[in-house]
């Protein structure tokens, strides 16, 4: 018998494909230094000056308790409630906001508050690869439901068929990682109608976790609707790591939909402190909390991302790649030439170009490119993509 907890081993099993990719990737980079790295959403240029200035300013103590324990500080929560109300068109209050260590912390908080052992959570396929291990660690079950083929729309029929008496949460990731799909208000309203019916059928409420860390990274003037606008039983997680392109700064929040019935809203608000403490003092470091107002309107260059998107789509398209044009995020998703993403990624690695194979997303035919690479990296990678297409499609 294992001396370690069953749920820890279940989390390890869930993340093993990602862990294997990490191991392979790190070994490959040592042998073949990267000409272009399109794997993760990491920066490849120096941080935004406004981010650096904000951190410098607020790292300097202004009182004896500057670095004391922090919780959901009143002023930052009130600031965020006001900003979020203006952005999403909903009347958030300070008590609806829990400051967390990035979106990871917000998702963990949601799972801790809502899930009992054995409960089920529906997640999109393809989708972010960390839902599974986090659910396993919560002793809950991940239920993967494919998005619509080609369009990657929400597949309402598939969601309906996946719902059981143990279903507690449906994750909606919009804009969606890895495809870049943004779901319209009409799409979300249909999901809301479905969950109202299904909640009544199974005798308890099904929640939506709206995973929105890419909410402000959108292209072509496309708008954004949060599921919280159409479905009251929604919690929103957000991270500043994407819009600042600073994923090592663990700053985010979990927000309760202000349209939630008053008694349920109050119950969740009351749980904030206890759950954050139980989750390992799940609160951002003090300087990040102080810096929050300075960081709220800072953004990476969305126009530059859009230009990289167009450059890559144009080049890859002429070599026969079948790519999805993203509406948001900083990713491109497409079919690997020949349909084997591992073989395709290995072919590129030999030329110093690194992409994320779809096996990591349980879609072994596809692959993901991260557009946080520099323009120089993109141009340097073009011969490798052309050569890989020629080899894999022979």
UniProtKB/TrEMBL annotation:
SUPFAM superfamilies assigned: PLP-dependent transferases
Cofactors demanded by this protein: pyridoxal 5'-phosphate
Stored Pfam families: Aminotran_1_2
InterPro entries: Aminotransferase_I/II_large (IPR004839), NHTrfase_class1_PyrdxlP-BS (IPR004838), PyrdxlP-dep_Trfase (IPR015424), PyrdxlP-dep_Trfase_major (IPR015421)
GO MF entries: pyridoxal phosphate binding; transaminase activity
EC number: 2.6.1.-
The entry's keywords: Aminotransferase, Transferase
EC class (word): transferase
Domain called Aminotransferase class I/classII large: residue spans: 38-382
Family stated for the protein in its record: Belongs to the class-I pyridoxal-phosphate-dependent aminotransferase family.
Name by which UniProt lists this protein: Aminotransferase
Organism (species): Ruegeria denitrificans
Taxonomy of the source species: Bacteria, Pseudomonadati, Pseudomonadota, Alphaproteobacteria, Rhodobacterales
């Amino acid at each position: 018998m294992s001396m370690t907890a069953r749920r820890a081993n279940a989390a390890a099993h869930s993340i093993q494909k990602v862990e294997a990719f990490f191991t392979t990737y790190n070994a490959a980079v040592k042998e073949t230094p990267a000409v272009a790295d399109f794997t993760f959403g990491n920066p490849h240029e120096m941080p935004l000056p406004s981010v650096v200035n904000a951190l410098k300013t607020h790292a300097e103590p202004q009182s004896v308790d500057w670095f004391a324990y922090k919780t959901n500080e009143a002023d930052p929560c009130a600031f965020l409630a006001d900003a979020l109300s203006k952005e999403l068109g909903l009347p958030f209050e300070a008590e609806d906001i829990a400051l967390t260590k990035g979106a990871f912390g917000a998702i963990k908080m949601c799972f801790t508050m809502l899930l009992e052992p054995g409960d089920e959570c529906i997640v999109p396929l393809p989708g972010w690869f960390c839902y599974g291990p986090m659910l396993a660690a919560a002793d809950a079950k991940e239920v993967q439901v494919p998005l619509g083929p080609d369009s990657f729309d929400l597949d309402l029929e598939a969601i309906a068929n996946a719902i059981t008496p143990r279903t507690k949460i449906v994750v909606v990731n919009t804009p969606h990682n890895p495809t870049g799909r943004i779901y319209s208000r009409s799409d979300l309203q249909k999901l809301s109608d479905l969950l109202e019916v299904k909640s009544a059928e199974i005798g308890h409420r099904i929640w939506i976790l709206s995973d929105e860390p890419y909410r402000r990274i959108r292209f072509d003037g496309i708008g954004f609707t949060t599921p919280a606008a159409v479905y009251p039983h929604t919690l929103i997680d957000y991270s500043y790591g994407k819009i600042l392109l600073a994923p090592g700064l663990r700053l985010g929040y979990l927000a309760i939909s202000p349209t939630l019935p008053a008694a349920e809203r109050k119950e969740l608000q009351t749980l904030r402190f206890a759950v954050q403490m139980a989750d390992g003092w799940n609160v951002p470091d003090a300087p990040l909390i102080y810096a929050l107002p300075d960081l709220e309107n800072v953004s990476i260059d969305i126009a530059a991302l859009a230009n990289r998107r167009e450059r890559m789509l144009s080049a890859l398209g002429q070599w026969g790649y079948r790519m999805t044009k993203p509406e948001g995020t900083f990713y491109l998703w497409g079919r690997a030439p020949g349909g084997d993403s591992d073989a395709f990624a290995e072919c590129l690695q030999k030329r110093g170009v690194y992409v994320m194979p779809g096996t990591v997303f349980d879609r072994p035919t596809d692959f993901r490119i991260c557009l946080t690479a520099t323009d120089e990296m993109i141009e340097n990678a073009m011969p490798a993509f052309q050569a890989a297409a020629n080899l894999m499609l022979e």
